[in-house]
């Protein structure tokens, strides 16, 4: 199967396939069917990447993977338990949803801790020391990662009458966050964090349940958040990663060739997404501006100002993550 980057061209070309797959089409006689859940919309770039993966697996094996998007079956915070318990075969969710069982995985959300994009990609590459360490911890939960999915960097969302431009602007605001450590950052900024699933964002912004939010810029367009928010602040303070997960018992029920096919397809899809995420984010920013919304780009000086208030988050991470967290920090600082 020819690989493409997950740009607008790919989103158009696989649209019909996504619609067909997400309807839960019946498998042909002799095929094994696995069910897969994601909270993301059907046309979100990460969902399209998951579709690419399922197509690759279908090409190489007799496994048919039914995709249920838009939290039809489970919200993102429910996915780890659903997969690890075997309630569903496969699922996709952010690393943040493992913060309770693997606090050290929150390193991705410690503001600016992961370094440059080159550093991040190197530390999260298949076989890299940090990646192996975190993968081993994930497997212990019963939800085995097949591959990691680059979802870009975190941004702040706000409304025109109360825009977030500087760290001080967050003070007193209720901010939607997607994990404990992002919440600690909001607290350090003087705001009040509100943890909620990605699928709940739109209504929360629309109803004023929160004043602003933290998300990935790709979600601004895929979730139509531009309809209820006006300003995107590209702080890029955290790395957002999703995980393609499979129940560990289901994994061990596959034969060697099937496991190899899933691994190979996962590596290909992971590489494809990592190579195209910059274009995905650039497209999302351009589309947001075209819709009449404001996108605030930060300089290195701006980011230094934000980073200066983040030290309490590093301290909280170490207190929460313990010995494993110390190992993680040692790896990324070596």
Note down, in words, how this protein is organized.
The chain is an alpha/beta fold and about 325 residues long. It folds into 2 domains: about 10-105 and about 115-150 and about 240-285, D-Maltodextrin-Binding Protein, domain 2 (3-Layer(aba) Sandwich), CATH 3.40.190.170; about 155-235 and about 290-334, Bacterial extracellular solute-binding protein, family 7 (D-Maltodextrin-Binding Protein, domain 2). The protein is about 45% helix and about 20% strand. It is built from 13 helices and 10 strands. It has helices spanning about 10-15, 15-20, 45-60, 80-85, 115-125, 130-140, 180-190, 200-205, 215-220, 250-255, 255-290, 300-305, 310-334; strands at about 30-40, 65-70, 90-95, 145-160, 175, 190-195, 210-215, 230-235, 240-245, 295. Strands 1, 2, 3, 4, 5, 6, 7, 8, 9 and 10 form a 10-stranded mixed sheet that branches. Strand 1, helix 3 and strand 2 form a beta-alpha-beta unit. Helix 3 (about 45-60) packs antiparallel against helix 11 (about 255-290) and helix 7 (about 180-190) crosses helix 13. The longest helix is centred in the C-terminal third of the chain and has 35 residues, at about 255-290. The chain is globular, with a radius of gyration of 19 Å.
């Amino acid at each position: 199967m020819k690989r493409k980057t997950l740009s607008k061209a790919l989103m158009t070309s696989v649209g019909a396939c996504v619609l067909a797959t997400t309807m839960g089409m019946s498998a042909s006689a002799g095929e094994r069917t696995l069910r897969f859940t994601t909270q993301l919309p059907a046309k979100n770039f990460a969902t399209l990447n998951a579709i690419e993966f399922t197509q690759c697996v279908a090409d190489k094996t007799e496994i048919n993977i039914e995709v249920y998007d838009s939290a039809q079956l489970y919200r993102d915070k429910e996915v780890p338990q659903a997969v690890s318990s075997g309630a569903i075969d496969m699922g996709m969710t952010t690393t943040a949803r493992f913060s309770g069982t693997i606090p050290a995985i929150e390193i991705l959300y410690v503001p600016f801790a992961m370094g440059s994009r080159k550093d991040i990609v190197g530390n999260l590459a298949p076989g890299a020391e940090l990646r192996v360490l975190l993968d081993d911890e994930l497997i212990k939960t019963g939800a085995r990662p097949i591959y990691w999915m680059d979802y870009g960097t975190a941004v702040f969302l706000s409304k025109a009458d109360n825009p977030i431009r500087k760290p001080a602007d967050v003070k007193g605001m209720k901010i939607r966050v997607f994990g404990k450590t992002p919440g600690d950052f909001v607290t350090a900024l003087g705001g009040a964090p509100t943890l909620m699933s990605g699928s709940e964002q739109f209504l929360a912004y629309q109803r004023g349940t929160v004043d602003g939010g933290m998300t990935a810029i790709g979600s601004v367009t895929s979730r139509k958040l531009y309809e209820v928010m006006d300003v995107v602040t590209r702080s890029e303070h955290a790395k957002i990663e999703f995980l393609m997960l499979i129940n560990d018992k289901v994994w061990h029920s596959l034969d060697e060739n099937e496991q190899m096919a899933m691994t190979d397809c996962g590596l290909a899809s992971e590489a494809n997404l990592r190579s195209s995420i910059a274009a995905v984010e650039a497209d999302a920013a351009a589309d947001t501006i075209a819709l009449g919304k404001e996108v605030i780009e930060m300089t290195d000086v701006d980011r230094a100002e934000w980073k200066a208030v983040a030290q309490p988050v590093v301290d909280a991470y170490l207190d929460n993550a313990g010995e494993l967290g110390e190992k993680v920090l040692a790896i990324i600082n070596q």
